[in-house]
Every structure is written in structure tokens, then in C-alpha cells.
Amino acid sequence: MTTDIKICGLKTQAALDAALGDCDAHEARYVGLVFFPKSPRNVDIDLARRLAERARGKAKVVALLVDPDDTLVDQVTAGVAPDFLQLHGRETVERIKQIRQRTSASIIKAVGVTTSEDVSKAVDYDAPGAIADIVLFDAKPPAGGELPGGNGLPFDWRVLANAADIAGRKYMLSGGLTPDNVAAAIELTKAAMVDVSSGVEFGPGQKDPELIARFIRAVKTAKQAD
Q1: For residue 23, what pLDDT is reported?
Q2: CATH label, 4-220, candidates 2.60.40.3090, 3.40.50.1820, 3.20.20.70, 3.20.20.140
Q3: Which residue numbers are catalytic?
Q4: What are the sequence ranges of the domains in the chain?
Q5: How does strand 201-203 pair with strand 206-207?
């Protein structure tokens, strides 16, 4: 099994092209666009639309939202037509159900992790009806931090030992991944998908195409799960 890749927080054509790869060698299966004003990776609808159109048919477009209201959900859905909405806030099961009714996009739900007890919360989003199509495990933000993700913080990957059984499906791993540690993370967790943002940047919100390429190479050469 080959681990799928998501490059999140893209803002430029150069970074997007690095994520997609050359010609027909599409490298990242998912590309993420952030709609959260406090984030240095925030994009507006017009820029997101242009990037999404360039990625369409080459990778799945993911729109990251944090506790969005209905207006933002509708604006992003209509303006960008993402394949996935990534809900990276404190959205409840009921709120996710409401959002699903407003969009045809699939849902990724981020779960902040420090301990194995945090991992067990993923079962809430795997209830009958598949409330979330993909569960993403990310490091919990630091106390008082304004960003729910993209903080460059790893967590103890060993707490994911039984994550596939708990979540009931393949999951996505995020939080502090870099070109230098992602192979070890894959080997330890057997994650089916990995997600990177700050780990391929030379400054907050500034993606480095070479770091993106290195990250992709590291994933592809990592010891994969059977």
C-alpha cells in the first residue's frame, strides 16, 4: 500500500505545481486551501478558485475551515467546489451533520491528539452514516495558541497504535511532519495518508517547492504498510 500525500496551506502556483508533480506524475493526492483569517496560509475565494481549477483532475481539492458558519460553508462550496471540507475546529457531530446537508463535498474531521484517550474520540465521527469520510489526527495546539493546526508540532505517534481499529477506517496523520521525519512516522503508525503544511515552508505560510519535493520523495521511499 502506498501512503497518500496531502500538501496543505497552498497559496501559490509554484507550490501547487510542486505538489502536483511534473506532467502526468501526480504526486500529492490531496491539496489543501485554508480559509481561516488568523492563519498565514489563509486564501480568499478568488485565489482559491484559481488554484482549485489548476488542481482539478490531478488531485483532490480540500478546503480547510475552522468552526465555519453557514455563510462561509456556502461561499467556499459555491466559489471553489472543493472535493473535501476539512473541519479543523471544535465542530460537534450535530454540526458536521448540518454541514453535510449544505454541501456535496466529502468531510475530513481533524482530531487533536496528545494521548490515546484523544484518539478514541475519533469513534464519535465514525458513527453509522459515516459522519466523517476521513479522520485526521493532528497535534493539539499549544495552550493559548490561535491556530488549531499548522503549528509544526508533532505528538507521540505511538498513541496511534490501535487507531485504525478505533476509527474503523484508514486515517490521515498530521502534526509536525517534515521531509526528515515522515518516513519514520509512516513506518511506526502505518498511516494510510500523511498531511504536511509548515513542515515544507521556509517561513510562515511560505511554501518551498524543493521541500515539497523532498517530502514527497521521503513518503514514496518510506517503508509502507502491507
Answers
A1: 47
A2: 3.20.20.70
A3: 8, 138
A4: 4-220
A5: antiparallel
What pTM did the predictor assign? 0.90
Q: Computed from CA positions of residues 167, 86, 220, 39, in that sequence, does the dihedral angle turn out positive or negative?
A: negative
On whether the CB atoms of residues 192 and 225 are closer than 8 A, the answer is yes
Q: What is the DSSP string of 107-164?
A: EEEEEEESSHHHHHGGGGGGSTTTS-SEEEEEEPPPTT-S-SS-S-----GGGGTTHH
The number of angstroms, rounded, from the C-alpha of 101 to the middle of its chain's C-alpha atoms is 22
Q: Are 202 and 208 in contact (CB under 8 A)?
A: yes
Nearest alpha-carbon partner for 32 in 185, 147, 194: 194
- Report d(CA 123, CA 126) in Å as an integer: 5
| Residue 7 pLDDT > 90 | yes
DSSP H helices in the chain: 13-20, 45-55, 70-80, 93-102, 116-120, 163-167, 182-189, 209-220
- Which of 69-73, 104-108, 119-123, 178-182 bottoms out in mean pLDDT, i.e. has the lowest? 119-123
Which residue is associated with the grid cell 511554501? 207
Could you report the per-residue pLDDT of 123-180, keeping only the tens digit for each?
Answer: 777 655 568 899 999 988 765 555 565 556 678 888 887 666 655 567 899 989 999 9
